User: Fold this.
Amino acid sequence: MSSNRTENPVILGLSNQNGQLRGSVKPAGAPGGGGGGPQQQQLNQMKGTINGNSQPAPPTNAIIKPGDDWKKNLKLPPKDTRIKTSDVTATKGNEFEDYCLKRELLMGIFEMGWEKPSPIQEESIPIALSGRDILARAKNGTGKSGAYLIPLLERIDLKRDCLQALVIVPTRELALQVSQICIQVSKHMGGVKVMATTGGTNLRDDIMRLDETVHVVIATPGRILDLIKKGVAKVGQVQMIVLDEADKLLSQDFVVMMEEMLGFLPRQRQILLYSATFPLSVQKFMNAHLQKPYEINLMEELTLKGVTQYYAYVTERQKVHCLNTLFSRLQINQSIIFCNSSQRVELLAKKISQLGYSCFYIHAKMRQEHRNRVFHDFRNGLCRNLVCTDLFTRGIDIQAVNVVINFDFPKLGETYLHRIGRSGRFGHLGLAINLITYDDRFNLKGIEEQLGTEIKPIPGIIDKSLYVAEYHSEGGEEVKQ
Assistant:
């Protein structure tokens, strides 16, 4: 199965920068489309709103009476039979029910397809429920969102019509994703009001929304600080604040805003920090603002076990040809291709569409509604290939992505780690391929040493069992075709 191809590709919307360049587009799962099979099942679960406002959950018809087996009434997604690595399977054997969570919350958890807690969830949930501050390091794609959303939702008091929890994230796309997960998990809880607010959207809509009851706000730093300063977001009763991708939020880009925002919050509040990497800026923030935090470190090694890493040594002029060869030889379900600048993203997306492959692109200079549409459509499987900048490296969880390609190799190990973490999500298998020029050779060696990982030369034929889900069953055996 190679990527979508047609002899006469049509390029749509390059002039108005909507980010969607198409060869011939078919929905994922259709013949010649963008990837069906087990990984598509996860995509279908994640359909949701993209305007940042919560939507009322569909009414649940089944009334659960005392003594009923409530699990029989759950609408569970298809079981995910792909093999998983020890990144998510090396648990203590706990169940979600062991944490004495509300039944309605458990219903949402199981209907998300979350069967058992991952290691970061096992470590985090009971501590967070106790009200203690947490500093947690865990790999990309191992369940950090669930690790903080579950205790956050358990502690929401629906009798209080006020804002009780903040989740701060560095990018607009991640805010939309986390809010969708939060809405899904809380849909049986009888009225938890969740709101996403980000820059690039209409401030008046947010003001009107906050005039009503909101319990949980998921936000980017600039927008929530603006709403707090205007007196619109009333944070006087916020009991929990989560910094997801904390290293980015506490970098020079955001740290001043984060410090200012904390000044508006109650002194008695719980702070949860989650990230894959923790530079000195996080340590400084922790010392200043956290009260005897419980530290979790599940990062004995930095890279995901399920992601196989290769490099191809090329000249700059050979990169597009090499990419074309990869598209024709790899069994791509969905791929994310990284470039180092917005301009190169658009140029490469145009080249890919001219080669006959359907392609979306996304970067920070696009209009927000176009970014939202690209993000929503790609995660729902409407296109197989996405070209992007590092905007898309933070926390974005698209289960169907099994191949990441660094068209431009990054300079920082931290950037590399977050990029390749877009494949092999939640312990599954994935492929990371790096196009390396003569100028990249020292960066390649440096990143290998910094991350303690090995990036191997690309072989002539890549074993499909390394990255294609259909070649494995849950027991780790190859599936007979």
Notes: The chain is about 30% helix and 15% strand.
